[in-house]
Structures are given as C-alpha cells and as structure tokens.
Specification:
- The chain has 276 residues and is of the alpha+beta class.
- Helices cover 27% and strands 32% of the residues.
- The chain contains three helices and twelve strands; from the N terminus they run H-E-E-E-E-E-E-E-E-E-E-E-E-H-H.
- The chain has helices at 2-17, 199-231, 243-267, and strands at 28-31, 34-37, 45-53, 56-64, 86-96, 102-111, 121-124, 128-136, 139-150, 168-173, 177-184, 193-194.
- The strands form three sheets. A five-stranded mixed β-sheet has the order 7-8-9-11-10, with no helix packed on it. Strands 3-4-5-6 form a four-stranded antiparallel β-sheet, with no helix packed on it. Strands 1-2-12 form a three-stranded antiparallel β-sheet, with no helix packed on it.
- The longest helix has 33 residues, at 199-231.
- The protein is elongated, with a radius of gyration of 28 Å.
Length: 276
C-alpha cells in the first residue's frame, strides 16, 4: 500500500514538472532574454544531394519548412510525399537514361506527422535547432539538427537554378539523424534583440511551480500519515488519512494562506523588519 501511494504521487509530480511540448518550432524564439526572429526563413526550402549510382543517378532532395508544416502537393499521390505535419522530409529519386525518374524513398524526418507525433524542440542563441517527431518504416525517434551560421551577405532567401536554397547544405545523414547547416544573416549578432520574457511564459512558470509545491506537500502529507498509521498497527486502506481529514485540507490551506497574508501586512509597517 505504501509503495502504491508513493508511485501515484510520483506520477503526479512527473506530470506537473514535465516540460511543455510544441508541435511546430517557434520561429520567434526567446532564449535567455534574447529574441531571434527566424520568420525570414519561413516557407518551403530544399537542398539536393546528387550521387552517381551507375547505371542511374540518385538524387536525395531534403525539404524543410522551419516555421510550419511543409506544403502538401495536391498534384502528387499521397504515398509519394511526406504526411501532413512534416517539417523536414527527404525524397529520393532515381533516374536512368531514357526513362522517367521514379521515387524510391519518402522519409519524414521531423514534424508532427498527421498530428500524432508531437515533437520537442530546442534552440540556443549560439544557433542550433533540434527537431524530432519523425518515423520511417522500422526507424523511430528520427531527428534533425540545424546549425545556423551568420552570413551577412545572405540577407534574403534565394534559390539557384536547380531549386536549392542558397546557404542551406547537408552535413550528414545516417538513416536516422539529419544534420543541416544554414548560413543566413538572420542569426547575426545585430539581429539579436534583448527582451523580457513574455507574461504568458512567466505565468506558466508560476503555475508550474505551484503545482509542484502542492504535489510535494501532498506526497509528504500522505506519506507521513501512512507511516504514522502503520506504526499504530493500521493496514490496508486504514493507512490513508481519514475522509474528514481530506475534506479539511482546503480549509486548512485557506487558513494558512490568511495567516501568512496577515503576517505580511502586519510586518510591512515595521520599517522592513519582521518579528517572529
């Protein structure tokens, strides 16, 4: 019984302290009091990796939309493109001379695929984004890492004749993890703006800490009560606090809050000193 009590309260604590998960990366990232607007990189972008694979030529096209899911092509079969919600998708085509190119691989590396694989994300002012949420065949927990490098010459997103986004390049791919580098002026020092954390973020942090405190108090209350009752010879459900004691918890908390509040108001007239 004691073990089940602690397991339940530990589960509640884990829920209260779990970090929020976003389905789409926030291109207006705020980290350590600095804001970096990456919306200039919004939209679908791509970079091709071409290999000679005689008697064919193999082209892997990596498509990415940093700020939103990739656009679905209504003119293409659903099976020939990544599912809705994908933000990073690889499409491999094979071309043989005298034949039309054909698709051999469609790889959703990162995103909220069909609204069912909510991804986490991380951003640092040093210029790194980590996206997850992809799965492909028997490969799960796929990820994309993007290193942003300051380049003051790339003030706008442009593309070459082959459709490659200038400044975007593939560093590595191992069938599970994709590593990209994106050179852009959007991450240069002059683009960093010092800001104060949003009110919503601050409010959520306050609520989260309150929930954690409440859970810890409940853990201590139930644990101590169960231990005391156990020492008195109680077993089973008798280890738990009485129903009347549980009902009284809100009133005890209210009285405690009033006492704390009155203590602050009384001590506020003592020129900054409190007498305990």
């Amino acid at each position: 019984m004691l073990l089940s009590i602690f397991q339940s309260t530990a589960f509640l604590y884990a829920i209260a302290s779990a970090p929020a998960v976003r389905a789409v990366f926030d291109c207006n990232a705020v980290v350590d009091g600095q804001a970096l607007n990456l919306t200039s990189l919004a939209g679908d972008h791509s970079v091709k990796v071409i290999r000679s694979t005689p008697p064919s030529t193999t082209t892997m096209t990596w498509n990415i939309n940093l700020c939103a899911p990739l656009t679905i092509n209504d003119q293409m079969a659903v099976s020939m493109q990544c599912p809705a919600g994908t933000q990073v998708c690889g499409i491999q085509t094979v071309a043989i001379e005298g034949q039309n190119p054909f698709i051999t691989q469609v790889i959703p590396v990162s995103g909220d695929l069909n609204g069912s694989t909510a991804q986490d994300e991380a951003y640092s002012v040093s210029g790194h984004v980590h996206l997850t949420g992809g799965m492909w065949g028997e490969v799960y927990e796929m990820e994309t890492d993007i290193d942003f490098v300051c380049d003051n010459t790339l003030t706008e997103v442009t593309h070459d004749a082959d459709g490659n986004t200038i400044g975007l390049q593939v560093l590595s791919w191992d069938d599970k993890s994709l590593h990209l580098q994106w050179n852009t002026s959007a991450v240069c020092d002059e683009q960093l703006v010092g800001v104060q954390q949003s009110t919503n973020s601050t409010a959520w942090n306050v609520v989260k800490y309150i929930l954690i405190a409440v859970v810890l108090i409940l853990v201590a209350y139930f644990g101590i009560t169960a231990y005391v009752n156990y020492r008195r010879g109680a077993t089973g459900v008798d280890l738990l606090p009485s129903s009347q004691a549980i009902v009284d918890i809100p009133y005890v908390a209210r009285d405690f809050a009033k006492k704390v509040g009155s203590g602050f108001s009384t001590n506020s007239n003592r020129d900054g000193y409190a007498v305990f």
